[in-house]
């Protein structure tokens, strides 16, 4: 497990489109986020896309974005839309249901 963040944090709302449901993408993304020490959450949306909020040190979050784009071998990410949010106090990354 990486060291806890020691510098400034960023938080993003992500909308991930493509073949990202029914292929283990949420579990892949949550595992990678935890490995990088990123907090937040992920959930499926009714339109077939996935929404995430991610928070961590900027370089760790950017690394996660690269890993998400690459996917897990079963997923196909067509587009990631990213919006900035204010960081919030949280300690973990969780997978939410619909």
Describe the structure.
The protein is of the alpha+beta class. The protein has one domain (10-83): 2-Layer Sandwich (Alpha-Beta Plaits). 24% of the residues lie in helices and 37% in strands. It has two helices and five strands. The protein has helices at 25-35, 58-70, and strands spanning 10-19, 39-44, 50-56, 76-85, 93-95. A five-stranded mixed beta sheet has the order 4-1-3-2-5, covered by helices on one side. The termini are far apart. The mean pLDDT is 95.
Structural key phrases:
globular; alpha+beta; Alpha-Beta Plaits; 2 helices; 98 residues; five-stranded mixed beta sheet
Give the helix/strand layout.
Blueprint: E1 10-19, H1 25-35, E2 39-44, E3 50-56, H2 58-70, E4 76-85, E5 93-95
Parallel strand pairs: 2-5
Antiparallel strand pairs: 1-3, 1-4, 2-3
Helix and strand pattern: EHEEHEE
Structural class: alpha+beta
Q: Can you tell me the overall shape?
A: globular
Judging by the overall fold, what is the CATH architecture?
2-Layer Sandwich
Number of strands: 5
- Describe the biggest sheet? 5 strands, mixed
Task: Quote the beta fraction.
Answer: 35-45%
- Classify the helix fraction into a percent range: 10-25%
Question: Would you tell me the overall average pLDDT?
Answer: 95
The main sheet orders its strands as 4-1-3-2-5
Count of discrete domains: 1
Radius of gyration over C-alpha positions, nearest whole angstrom: 12 Å
Please mark out the parts with pLDDT under 50 across 5 or more consecutive residues, or reply none. none
State the distance separating the first and last CA atoms: 28 Å
Number of helices: 2
């Amino acid at each position: 497990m990486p060291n806890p963040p020691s510098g400034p944090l960023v938080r993003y709302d992500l909308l991930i489109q493509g073949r990202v449901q029914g292929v283990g993408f949420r579990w892949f993304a949550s595992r990678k986020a935890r490995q990088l020490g990123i907090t937040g959450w992920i959930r499926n949306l009714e339109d077939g896309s996935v929404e995430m909020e991610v928070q961590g040190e900027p370089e760790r979050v950017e690394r996660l974005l690269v890993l998400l784009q690459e996917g897990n071998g079963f997923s196909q990410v067509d587009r990631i839309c990213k919006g900035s949010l204010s960081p919030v106090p949280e300690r973990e990354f969780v997978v939410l249901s619909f």
